[in-house]
Write a structure and sequence with these properties.
Elements: H1 4-12, H2 26-40, H3 47-54, H4 58-65, H5 68-82, H6 86-93, H7 97-112, H8 122-125, H9 133-160, H10 169-188, H11 193-205
Helix pairs in contact: 2-3, 2-5, 6-7, 7-10, 7-11, 9-10, 10-11
């Protein structure tokens, strides 16, 4: 038979229940990580930087997103949907390659200089000084895929007679890619939307015509 004093002693030494794990909004944390990678690039953004801006501990980050590279891959996909889809929309909705390119460049001028988020393009800027081959390769493939999409549309316009038969589709598509990537860097360097739209005017003035 246990005495009342023994019972009290047992109760007094019982371990305290653990607190519930801290919860967080995953979408909000992902957006904060996106902005950090966009501002600083992949290489310069450390796990400690991410936990600070996302306001979560490292265990929560790893549990919810995996490692830094996995988180970045998800960030790039999210960026493509939320901020970087204007080129795909233009190609899908405009009747010609010329119209699609002009719309893409004008929307890039607006998006890359929007003060609501870091300037430029994450897919362009995040590769700067990147020493992780898999990340560098993934971003390169995305940029090249964008150029390939423009090239495909340009070739279709050549076949349809919208562009001269002798148009170099590959070179013209690379020119579009160079404009987009260059506009991103110039926005990072302080170019305004008006500055970039002036470049669009020049780019479209030299566009081949039938």
């Amino acid at each position: 038979m246990v005495s009342s004093e023994g019972t009290k002693a047992q109760v007094g030494t019982a371990p305290k229940p653990r607190g519930r794990p801290r919860s967080f909004d995953r979408a909000t944390a992902l957006e904060k990580a996106l902005l950090a990678f966009w501002e600083h690039g992949y290489e310069a953004t450390s796990v400690s930087d991410l936990t600070r801006v996302m306001d979560i501990g490292a265990p929560s980050l790893y549990a919810a997103f995996g490692d830094k590279r996995s988180l970045f891959e998800e960030v790039v996909r999210e960026y493509g949907v939320k901020y970087g889809s204007f080129g795909d929309r233009a190609l899908a909705e405009e009747p010609t390659a010329r119209a699609a390119v002009e719309r893409t460049l004008r929307e890039a001028a607006a998006e890359y200089t929007d003060p609501a988020h870091p300037y430029g393009c994450l897919v362009v800027h995040a590769a700067t000084n990147c020493s992780t081959p898999e990340v560098e390769q993934s971003l390169r493939e995305r940029r090249n895929a964008n150029i390939a999409a423009f090239e495909s549309r340009i070739r279709a316009d050549i076949a349809a007679g919208e562009l001269p038969a002798g148009t170099d589709a590959a070179a013209l598509a690379r020119h579009v890619g160079a404009m987009i990537q260059g506009m991103s860097q110039q926005a990072r360097d302080g170019a305004s939307r008006t500055d970039l739209e002036a470049l669009v005017e020049i780019a479209m003035a030299i566009w081949p015509r039938t």
